[in-house]
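Lecture notes, unit on binding sites. The following record was shown on slide 14. It pairs a sequence with S-adenosylmethionine.
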Amino acid sequence: MEFLLARKAKEPLLPHIINETCELYQTKVSIGYTRTCTCKPNHINCLIPKEWLKSQIGVWQFYYEGRDIRNKEVHPATFPISLATKVISLFTHEGELVLDPFVGSGTTLLASQDLNRNAIGFDLQDEYVKLCAERLTKNNLFNKAQQIAIQDDARNIDKYIESETISLIWTSPPYANLLNRERKNKSRRNRDNGQLGKIEQYSQDTRDLGIMPLQEYTISMGDIFERLLTLLKPKGHCVINVPDMWWENERITIHISLVEELRRRGYELRNIIIWDRTNIVNRIGIFGWPSNYITMGTTFEYLLDFWKPSLPKL
Ligand SMILES: C[S@@+](CC[C@H](N)C(=O)[O-])C[C@H]1O[C@@H](n2cnc3c(N)ncnc32)[C@H](O)[C@@H]1O
């Protein structure tokens, strides 16, 4: 009975959620991280050869489904559940632990729940963490793993997670200060969706990576991911989704900055996959015509796939 009461006091106040008001705030989370499948030890995932074959192509496309959040008022930058499903299926086994340091509306947690993976997601914003919890309670009743959303700065993740327990870090971080400006794209000009002239940023919190210019952003990402490297199992993958952007007619190469910074911090780049978004992009315009050729940033994004080398890089 005493044991039960002690455990009860340590349970999160709401299922799936830890925030500043919770006793578990900034303490180690008790969560599974070992395989529950019967795959051979040298397999990196539970896929059969036919499913593996489909992933050999380096350009991926996805569709949204009914559970996806596409309303920018709810969250300005979500990725499809099907994209998270593919990445998690490729780089983990059932029962293993997935981390999303910038979890937003909780897409990674939902996909993990579908796939029977344990998962922890972090976000600075309490409203997004509550949204994650809400989405998780509506989802899969047959889920045997645990998914938790935590409201905290990604810089504090090592306070919650034991070292070398994570099999996959999968995330879409803020894209430097891409969203922190008024929407003035021509493609939005004729649309009656209220987006023109709006700033779609998550917050103006000084810890929010989405208000930082590229150089400061890159160093902050490096600091966060260097700490995460100790939590990742050797040969565990870390997949980061980012686009580049155009600003004042200059290409801002976020993906190059991140590749260079994460290499400096001890990660090894394995693959660059292109997420082809032409099937879901809203409308394309004649940007730059007739004198200045620029491709539309919204038509594709990068999936940067790193891993933790089994021996540290010298
Ligand atoms: C691109 S969104 C992630 C969206 C997510 N993939 C989804 O499908 O909903 C990036 C998130 O990072 C969060 N964020 C920004 N700076 C942060 C920080 N320092 N620590 C934790 N989260 C942060 C923002 O609040 C935002 O929700």
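Take-home: The CA atoms of residues 191 and 206 lie 32 Å apart.
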